[in-house]
Design a protein that fits this description.
Largest sheet: 5 strands, antiparallel
Helix content: under 10%
Distance between the termini: 26 Å
Structural class: mainly beta
Order of helices and strands: HEEEEEEEEEEEEEEEEEEEEEEEEEEEEE
Strand order of the largest sheet: 1-21-20-19-18
Low-confidence stretches: 1-67
CATH superfamily: Prolyl oligopeptidase, N-terminal domain
Shape: globular
CATH class: Mainly Beta
CATH architecture: 7 Propeller
Radius of gyration: 19 Å
Mean pLDDT: 80
Strand content: over 45%
Length: 379
């Protein structure tokens, strides 16, 4: 799922109707204007209280899915969704439509390897369907739950009542492709202005990471800020670590494996601190850019310069260590997907005004870890 503080208004509308045109791991909001940027490597520990408890022996769940990863590029028309499977070399592998996947429509998030995705279900109940690219309907998700695909591309972590009302309990579970979920445990009761966001779901590392967030008003806009980060064992729900950010609340972006996170200041000039989760050490800093995400191997960052116009916006891929620019694309990023265990990134970027369709007038590019690019062409 997509962190709420990073969602543009057009995306929230699409999710509400269950008919997203293209949805992938991370889509960011169009934020305030930012100035020149630089990345400075650091090795000093971050001033963040960290508490840890004794580790447990993980019970690793069975993994599944093909080893060849792909990107699902989705286009929707009234009553019909077309899915384009694109390889990480930029070549179109095949195309199918919603009639081949049990009538599911749209795409609300693909698995890391692109073998499965969550779509809006068709029928009297507004359920979400978990389907494969080969047309099998595996199960369903409650449309009120927040979900995140696990790194095995088979399981999903789901949060029940992610925005709980005052006194209402929020909890987390794991499901195998939308089948009957296994409850993991409670996340706490709500205050009406709180949010529990599952940011990492890792079968490989036996890890689930929860961002505890609150709604605040910043510059007239309602945003969510992270007050704490909690790491649990996925198999036992044993609390492994808690990072307390309550004294300096910020927005947080986690790497897919939970090894690093970016902590962003709430007001301009924007400043990001890249932190290693294991010991709270600061490993890099990003000035006047927003961090959009970490590559699948944690070696590179996708960052954005947001200005008053998409025509002057900029998207960059940078090395975490040293901050050198690997690739630079003019425009505003509307779609972002990371290749598992790789520095490859799929991007949709536009220099034109944003609309409801994130692919409208957008250039589709795959940026490889060495900075070379592969253009993607779909019908």
């Amino acid at each position: 799922m997509i962190p709420r503080h990073k969602r543009p208004r057009w995306l929230s509308t699409l999710i509400g109707f269950g008919a997203a045109l293209v949805l992938v791991s991370l889509v960011v909001a169009w934020l305030a204007a930012r100035g020149p940027a630089g990345v400075v490597s650091k090795t000093t520990p971050a001033n963040i209280p960290v508490t840890a408890s004794s580790p447990v022996t993980p019970t690793v769940l069975a993994s599944g899915g093909p080893s060849t990863a792909q990107v699902i590029v989705t286009k929707s028309a009234p009553g019909l969704t077309t899915y384009h499977l694109v390889g990480w070399d930029g070549k179109l592998l095949r195309t199918f439509d919603s009639r081949a996947v049990a009538g599911a429509i749209g795409q609300l998030g693909q698995s890391p390897d692109g073998s499965r995705f969550v779509a809006a279900g068709v029928g009297p109940l507004p359920q979400r369907a978990v389907v494969t690219v080969d047309g099998a309907r595996l199960g369903i998700l409650d449309p009120h739950d927040q979900f995140r695909w696990a790194d095995d591309s088979r399981h999903l972590c789901v949060v029940h009542n992610p925005n709980p009302a005052a006194g209402v309990q929020s909890s987390i579970a794991i499901t195998d492709g939308g089948k009957e979920p296994r409850e993991l445990g409670d996340l706490g009761t709500g205050s009406g202005d709180s949010l529990h966001d599952v940011a990492v779901c890792s079968v490989t590392r036996d890890l689930v990471v929860i961002l505890d967030e609150d709604f605040v008003e910043v510059g007239g806009d309602l945003r969510t800020v992270t007050s704490s980060i909690r790491e649990f064992s996925l198999s036992t729900f044993h609390l492994l670590r808690k990072v307390d950010l309550s004294s300096t609340p910020a927005t947080v972006i986690e790497s897919a494996d939970g090894r690093y996170f970016a902590e962003e200041s709430l007001r301009p000039p924007f400043f990001n601190t890249i932190i290693r989760a294991a010991d709270g050490a600061t490993v890099a800093s990003v000035n006047d850019r927003i961090v959009l995400g970490f590559t699948g191997d944690d070696t590179e960052l996708v960052v954005g310069l947001q200005t008053a116009s998409t025509a002057t916006d900029l998207v960059e891929v940078r090395k975490v260590s040293g901050g050198s620019v690997v690739a630079s694309l003019p425009g505003h990023m509307t779609v972002l997907q990371f290749r598992p265990a790789s520095a490859d990134v799929f991007l949709a970027v536009t220099t034109l005004p944003l609309g409801r369709d994130p692919l409208a007038n957008a250039a589709l590019e795959i940026v490889h870890g060495d900075g070379t690019t592969s253009s993607v062409q779909v019908g």
